[in-house]
Amino acid sequence: MPILNSARRINPLDLNKNIRIGVAFPLDDKNMFTGTKTVKEQIKANLLNLLLTYPGERINLPNYGAGIKHLIFEQNIDLETLKIKIQSQIDIFIPDINIQNISTNTLKDKHTLIITITYNYILDNSTQSLQLNFNTFN
User: C-alpha angle 79/81/116, rounded to 5°?
Assistant: First the structure.
């Protein structure tokens, strides 16, 4: 008898343990050849790639990328505009997740920006989080 209304669903790509889904970050000696093993790991890598890519940097996708590094070096950072830019890019290019929260904090010295994104993976409704720290004082 099948289990109905089960909350646990698995992406079919995760069933075969002999394949790798995509590229893992950071691109170092270990990750260059191992890759990501699950779709959740790849979605997190895709999210990181989307946030760190400048618009126009990716071939054949001129609108791809949030360009966060460019925005944080502005004289006055508008954090609400930054959140809207991140949300719109994720809605377009990573439809497998729903954003729960995007929080931005600056440390007291005003030289560090912390961006935390909490999201739900749509397939099984699990919650993940990603934090980026930018030191704007170099």
Answer: 50
Burial 55-77 (b: 16+ CB within 10 A, else e): eeeeeeeeebbbbbeebbeeeeb
Q: Measure CA of the first residue to CA of the last residue in the chain; give whole Å.
A: 62
Both tokens assigned to 132: 């980026």
* Tens of pLDDT, residue by residue, the chain (138 residues): 454 555 566 666 656 666 667 777 777 777 777 777 788 888 898 899 899 899 988 889 999 998 887 776 666 777 788 888 889 999 999 998 999 999 988 776 767 888 899 999 888 888 999 998 887 665
Residues whose CB is less than 8 angstroms from the CB of residue 79 and which lie 6 or more positions away in sequence, other chains included: 104
- The C-alpha atoms of residue 114 and residue 97 are separated, in whole angstroms, by 21
pTM to 2 decimal places: 0.78
Q: Return the bridge partners of 103, or none.
A: 116
* Exposure string for 7-22, b = 16+ CB within 10 A, e = fewer: eeeebeeeeeeeebbe
